[in-house]
Design a protein that fits this description.
The chain has a domain of 31 residues. The protein has two helices and no strands. The longest helix has 14 residues.
């Protein structure tokens, strides 16, 4: 056995799942219904669709503009 191994050209494990964190979140009934309808149309779980939308929001670095006037 070698004392050291070189992993600079190693590939990531393609079977490793992406890290996800389970949370509890309160959403409007209409919002959940919307994503469940999209889920039925696309055959993609509605939680995944919500995650896709949130990732897109994050990736575009959109800011929320909230006003309580």
């Amino acid at each position: 056995m070698r004392d050291e191994y070189d992993f600079t050209n190693a590939n990531k494990n393609p079977y490793e799942k992406k890290h996800k964190q389970q949370i509890t979140i309160n959403l409007d009934v209409e919002t959940v219904d919307y994503f469940k309808k999209m889920s039925a149309e696309t055959n993609i779980p509605y939680q995944t669709l919500i995650n896709i939308c949130l990732k897109e929001y994050r990736d575009k670095q959109k800011k929320i503009n909230i006003s309580f006037d």
